[in-house]
């Protein structure tokens, strides 16, 4: 597929995801309230349990064992499959592709040396997001790959701003910080997962637990496909974020566009992303 057609198809797909509905007013206020206030949804009482005795069955124990094994397999698959497909044990760094290189892959630079005493590589981005209605965002992210045990320090921050219906504006900053393990990597792709914290900076700050999983992949020179999910808690409510981007690299820099979905309690934000990322 030609580069122009690929870009046009991606932009059209994101526009279809974002279009078709107007964003409800005061979404940032709803996020703020759900984070700092306990969930007050009414609970329904469970009906009284039957007093009838149930016969125990050995078949039930077998079923429990089968479903337990099935659950463990489902949890392990997102890690085992990329590991066996992509991992190269001798590959200890993941660097940016350089268009000046003749070979397809990630370019080694002199910015970070290959050693066990310092940083091996890093990636940083700045981006703008919009839902083409009332909400805009400005975000930044930094990932620092350490040569020890394939660990990565991962941190991000996004400031959301919303135009209010009656005039004026509202703003809210969300972010996370994680310690990530690169469980599968080679010169073309890296898969990572880890744990950390979500945080909110506002009149009342709050934090919560975070689980993250994502990858970067070079399918063909000079394109980069990246995806990531964050799933956890923030204050008194749940948080889920999923994003996918497609970028084009030139030397150590990448220009990309993509889509991000954020779900916090009853608020769902869908934004289209435009950003620049540097690979060192």
From TrEMBL:
Region forming the signal peptide: 1-25
The entry's keywords: Signal
Stated name of the protein: Outer membrane protein beta-barrel domain-containing protein
Region entry Disordered, spans: 33-57
